[in-house]
Amino acid sequence: MIKVEIKPSQAQFTTRSGVSRQGKPSSLNEQLCYVDLGNEYPVLVKITLDEGQPAYAPGLYTV
Model pTM? Predict the structure, then answer.
């Protein structure tokens, strides 16, 4: 199992906006979290949220 930690400072998401190849506006909501892959230190990763999905609350998650 993989352990994911979202710290209180990571409780919000950021939105990246741009124009797609077809010329249509597009946006991505991303949230930072730490993933424990069993190494000495966890890895900082960005997770993409679905449109309209709220940010994950701070805490420990198991995937």
Answer: 0.84
Q: What is the pLDDT of residues 4-52, one digit of tens each?
A: 999 999 999 999 999 999 999 999 999 999 999 999 999 999 999 999 9
Q: What's the CATH number where 25 sits?
A: 2.40.50.140
Tokens of 53: 């999905």
Instruction: Please measure the distance between the N-terminal and C-terminal CA atoms of the chain and give it in whole angstroms.
Output: 6
Q: How many domains does the chain contain in total? A: 1
Query: Rounded to whole angstroms, how far apart are CA atoms 5 and 62?
Result: 9
Look up residue 22 and give its amino acid.
Q
- Alpha-carbon Rg for the chain, nearest whole angstrom, is 14
Domain of residue 21 covers: 3-62
